[in-house]
Amino acid sequence: MNRPAPVEISYENMRFLITHNPTNATLNKFTEELKKYGVTTLVRVCDAPYDKAPVEKEGIHVLGTCAGCTCFD
Predict the structure, then answer these.
(1) What top-level branch of life does the organism fall under (predicted)?
(2) 3-class SS at 3?
(3) Mapping DSSP to helix (H, G, I), strand (E, B) and coil, where does residue 14 land?
(4) Quick check: 23 and 48 in contact, CB under 8 A?
(5) Domains of the chain, start order
(6) Contact status, residue 1 vs residue 25, Cβ threshold 8 Å
(7) How confident is the model over 17-73, as pLDDT tens digits?
(8) Distance CA 57, CA 32 (A)
(9) Is the dihedral of CA 27, 31, 36, 42 positive or negative?
């Protein structure tokens, strides 16, 4: 499946990266993409939750609002 390219938005001293929601099967590639952009915090607002442990293992802090997630835990 083709996924849209990430979109980076800058505002003052903040940067936001808008991406597709990954699946557990695509999580490794997704994490590499986040690292390429220098992401340090990921806010999940997707419908389908995925395992956040591999993302956190790469040093990216994960906040969540997905079904089953604790909002901003």
Answers:
(1) Eukaryota
(2) coil
(3) strand
(4) yes
(5) 7-64 (3.90.190.10)
(6) no
(7) 999 888 889 899 999 999 999 999 998 877 667 888 899 999 999 887 665 555 444
(8) 12
(9) positive
